[in-house]
């Protein structure tokens, strides 16, 4: 057993708080039948057995059935790590044991691949107790294998049957929950007798809607990033000599960058969704930053912070068109990786349409190459590998040199670069995430007990104290639409991007000009686990504003 730090020991004793509706036996109350967010006919045809199911809400059951039979459950952690995954599993464990103490939990190892390859462990109470309230996914590991082939479903079914598993819980982001839904449909259509339940995980915060108010991990990860950005701002305001270009994880949506901006009040923050809506070019973005650098220099402030969302490049309309064509091209060129770098570059330039080839050629060679690197198993560009922070600071430097020559800029410009992503994904969950995740897992046990399949565990009313949270389930098909992936139209969960009419973005817009010119930095400090509620239990700013906070 590894030695534990003092904080780890104290944290292990934390008892996550459950919504009061889950305190004893529960009954499921059915809402109205549901529809997918778009493309209803296509989604209905693809999911004939799991489409249109009602929303479920749990209430205390005043007359619970006395006898229950034990049942076995499997669990998978899928995709990128997010703080709180261990609490989903401990909540699930406690939930199935509360229903029947002889129920058992099996964890498939290293993501969905563990199901297909029959790699698993039984999660006993001594294992679970080691991981309560800890960050990371190391209890069983995670992976990005995409579950989409019938052969994989059948291989999975072999081990599920062998272990007498009644239900599988897949803890993942939008793509993994899409897979969960496809699997639920397949097992239902084939009367396999295995239910599939999803849990909303991702630090990116883009798996949300009215019923899933936030994905778990977003709260903790953004608090960690905001702490370190705050520290950088103190440093920057002390030395007054650097502009810090800080890229923040979040593969597509800019929720992380926006949340951090609301927490730290930087001099500049790019929101990709706004870039797209305003049809901005790379040059527009660079000019916007350079203008702020020049203005601050007029006041003698040759320092500042710029927050850059990781997914930016895919939101610049011209780049988006280029990437879409590249995705199709690479999907249809299986031997691409075997070519030399020079061959790859000339192959791409000669195969792309004229407009896209021109943009591709105009990019710094390194960045152009980063756009052609392997896609992830879901067909996404691995944006975390693209050094946008360096691309932008280099281009801002060039723009400022031109402005200086034209006597429009008088300052000094020196840049530092940072990328925050992996630093926050395995942090010990904040009290919010510790409670939320435990409730999501405990609630998943109730969804299994009431026979649901193709549902996502839903815990809402999240800005209220956790006892008042509302627990239930939402049919996954409800969140789906048709999108082009790997060159084909596929049913997928619709990503929730930053809503430019939403409160969090509006709050940012109200204040950003002030933050740009004056130095209004906020220093959130590290996550606190013990102490007064206003220090330890605050939800994210995003959730606070979305739920009507002023
Ligand atoms: P999920 O969508 O699986 O939660 O992962 C999100 C994420 O953390 C992104 O923010 C990031 O772009 C990506 O994972 C990095 O992936 P990897 O861990 O494979 O490097």
Could you explain the architecture of this structure?
There is one protein chain. By secondary structure, the chain is of the alpha/beta class. 42% of the residues lie in helices and 16% in strands. The strands form three sheets. The chain has a nine-stranded mixed β-sheet, with helices on both faces. Strands 9-10-8-11 form a four-stranded parallel β-sheet, sandwiched between helices. Strand 14 and strand 15 (488-493) form a beta hairpin. Helix 3 runs antiparallel to helix 5 (125-131), helix 3 runs parallel beside helix 18 and helix 9 (255-264) crosses helix 19. The chain starts with 5 loop residues before the first helix and ends with a helix. 1,6-di-O-phosphono-beta-D-fructofuranose binds at residues 79-80, 82, 173, 201-204, 249-251, 310, 383-384, 425.
> How far apart are the termini?
47 Å
Strand content: 15-25%
- Whole-angstrom Rg: 24 Å
What topology, given as strand order, has the largest sheet? Answer: 1-2-13-12-7-6-3-4-5
Question: How many beta-strand elements?
Answer: 15
The share of residues in helices is: 40-55%
Structural class: alpha/beta
Tally of alpha and pi helices: 21
